[in-house]
Amino acid sequence: MPDVEIRKISSVLEEIFHEGGPPANVPPRRAAIIAVIKNPFAGRYVEEIQPFMEDLKPLGLDMAKRLVEMLGGDAGIVEGYGKGAIVGAAGELEHGALWHAPGGYAMREVLGGAKAIVPSAKKVGAAGTRLDVPVTHTDASYVRSHFDSMEVGINDAPRADELALVLVMTTGARVHSRSGGLLAEDITGEDGLR
After folding, report:
1. Digit-coded pLDDT (tens) for 98-147
2. Which CATH class is domain 6-186?
3. In terms of DSSP H, where are the helices of the chain?
4. For residues 126, 160, 105 and 26, what is the CA-based torsion angle, rounded to 10 degrees?
5. Domain locations in the chain as residue ranges
6. pTM assigned to the model
7. Beta strands in the chain (DSSP E)
8. Is 163 helix (H, G, I), strand (E, B) or coil?
């Protein structure tokens, strides 16, 4: 398989002080990192694409480690995560699906074995396409306070022959979460659901 050819890496960090309600004592933070890489399958149909997932694993680990650093360097404060991919117009949606395992398992590893499935979104789009990356709690998918998303995108990516691969991590619930459901302090974290 071809080497992963990175054109650029972009990152963003948000601190959410309030959403119209009282300011948070400790503002939750959300961080996203996007790697823009050459799509080795752009412009043609290739039957066997799975081996490229192995090539993406080191990139996933590097991106996950960078996110933890952006959030303060302590993986223990990360409570939410998600991933996504924007495929340039000369690619196909399945090329974005190759990010599922390398992106998800990288975050789980860096976070010490998080239990919940890493939610994902992917689409094909032109340069400047935005993607809403879904976020859930790292150990229990049903923690309603952590259902969130982070919109990401880069003005000049992905080009037609590129992939924009995304990871997102958060430090807590939505700033004014009050919709009920399973609370983070009540999870058992055994099956990734509750």
Report:
1. 999 999 999 999 999 899 999 999 999 999 999 999 999 999 999 999 99
2. alpha beta
3. 52-70, 93-97, 100-110
4. -40
5. 6-186
6. 0.95
7. 6-15, 29-38, 80-87, 120-124, 131-137, 148-152, 162-170
8. strand
